[in-house]
């Protein structure tokens, strides 16, 4: 987590405060196996803060998903984000833990971030994350197949 915070700082990003519940994800289990965590972070840079000086984020209800809906208030208007909508699930990148055990995965991550381009800021991070996710997803499918689909079939 320290590396994540260092990366945000390097890119000139700071935490955007939130209102509501701290935890943004639950595993939908009961009692001893119940887990909740704050997985979602909201970051902004100075330019964004100058455009939306009174912006804040509200963590709302779960609405039948494992992630809370998110409401971003930019001033007089709001933007609603529900990360687990059925459409988003089809398009969302999922990192499989087994990939991290393979040296090829590490090489793909390093290659995705090693670039002669020295830009900073949100757009650069977003671009690099997209490139990295695409490379790893394609590689993971070729090497391991669709792991989640296979597990669901077996259950």
Mean pLDDT: 76
How much helix is in the residues? Answer: 40-55%
Query: Separation of termini?
Result: 32 Å
Counting DSSP H or I runs of 4 or more residues, the number of helices is 6
**pLDDT < 50 stretches:** 84-90
Give a short account of the largest sheet: 4 strands, mixed
Report the sheet-strand fraction. 5-15%
Widest sheet: strand order? 2-6-7-8
Q: Output the helix-strand order.
A: HEEEEEHEEEHHHH
Structural class: alpha+beta
Q: Total number of β-strand segments?
A: 8
Shape assignment: flat
What Rg do the Cα atoms give?
A: 18 Å
Q: How would you describe this protein?
A:
- This protein is α+β, with helices and mostly antiparallel strands and 155 residues long.
- Helix content is 41%, strand content 15%.
- The protein is built from six helices and eight strands.
- The chain has helices spanning 2-10, 46-51, 86-91, 103-113, 122-144, 147-154, and strands at residues 14-15, 18-20, 25-26, 36-37, 43-44, 56-59, 70-73, 78-81.
- The protein has a four-stranded mixed beta sheet, with no helix packed on it.
- α4 packs antiparallel against α5 (122-144).
- The longest helix is centred in the last third of the chain and has 23 residues, at 122-144.
- The protein is flat and about 50 Å long.
- The model is unreliable at 84-90 (pLDDT under 50).
């Amino acid at each position: 987590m320290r590396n994540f915070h260092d990366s945000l700082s390097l890119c000139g990003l700071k935490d955007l405060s939130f209102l509501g519940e701290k935890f943004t994800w639950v595993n939908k289990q009961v009692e001893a196996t119940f887990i909740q965590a704050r997985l979602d972070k909201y970051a902004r840079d100075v330019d964004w803060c100058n455009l939306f000086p009174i912006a804040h984020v509200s963590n709302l209800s779960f609405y039948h998903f494992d992630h809370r809906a998110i409401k971003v208030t930019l001033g007089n208007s709001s933007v609603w984000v529900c990360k687990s909508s059925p459409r988003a699930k089809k398009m969302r990148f999922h990192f499989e833990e087994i990939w991290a055990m393979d040296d090829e995965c590490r090489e793909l991550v390093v290659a995705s971030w090693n670039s002669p381009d020295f830009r900073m800021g949100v757009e650069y991070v977003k671009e690099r994350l997209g490139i990295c996710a695409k490379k790893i997803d394609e590689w993971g499918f070729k090497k391991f197949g669709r792991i989640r689909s296979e597990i669901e079939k077996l259950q």
